[in-house]
Amino acid sequence: MRYKIVILDGKGMNPGDLPWDKITSLGDTVIYDNTTYEQIVPRSKNADIVVVNKCRFDRNIIQSLPELKFICESATGYDNIDIEAAAERGIPVSNVRGYSTNSVVQHTFALILALRNKCEYYSGEVKKGRWSHSDFFTFWDFPIYELAGKTLGVYGFGKIGSKVASIGQAFGMKVLATRKNPEKGFPPGIKAATFEQLLKESDILTLHAPLTKENHNIINAGALKMMKDTALLINTARGKMIDEEALRQALDNGIIAGAALDVLSAEPPPADNPLLGAKNCIITPHIAWTSVEARKALMEGVAQNIEAFIKGKPINTVNDIKSN
Prior knowledge:
Elements: E1 4-7, H1 10-13, H2 21-24, E2 28-31, H3 37-44, E3 49-52, H4 59-63, E4 70-73, H5 83-88, E5 93-94, H6 101-117, H7 119-127, E6 151-155, H8 159-170, E7 174-178, E8 190-192, H9 195-201, E9 204-207, H10 221-226, E10 232-235, H11 244-252, E11 258-261, E12 281-283, H12 292-310
Parallel strand pairs: 1-2, 1-3, 3-4, 4-5, 6-7, 6-9, 7-8, 9-10, 10-11, 11-12
Helix pairs in contact: 6-8
């Protein structure tokens, strides 16, 4: 049987700089750069396999695709898919894990250092001529604080969170961490903490957990008031973990010192997103995972998941469906 594969939002994974051949060799493949919710069913109606990244596969969509046999999430997070509805249909859902760890960790520290060292700001000031007209060999407008000796709080201690923690240690930081299964323990030098301890004790709090019902808006007004007024908040996980209006008020009123975010609650954000005009807030357009190396690994992972399904032995399933 020659499977029909539809990739619904391929541009995010591959805007054209990487070959598709490892995936296209596995079946008759149609690739769309982007797909709206309304386009999902007409584009997928004859598909055996769909590859999605951000397209919302809710119960209605899944029930409207009688030919569908396999859903491949081209990401680690799969909150855009109703995995229970898929399981009821006997449709396995597989994700790709670990492909972006190095990329996200690197971006996490890029954001931390952007807030701490303000290199972009100072480069701009130099180009405006301030240094050329300075009566001293240097100038600075803000204090620069070292990471060494500061406390890094890591919320979520999976592959990404654990590597962030180890790099924090390399900077000489004290590291507190919380994880879903604390009985697994922590490496030497990393202190287990409750979420409340993370809020109260962290100089930099960084989020690395998947989005769940339990942590939706976990960073809210109450949580922010528990943080140090010198603290920084970093989010490269999921935007809906943060109450964005509460964060804007916290930043504008000096309740915390700064935030750097690679994710927002809606992407792309509407023009009235409250954080777009917030003080001391750096926002990047969900690019932490997009290194060339990470995207190559992602595409290889998608191909491996599809090939395993075709062979009747799905791997990396997230909804306990083992075969079609």
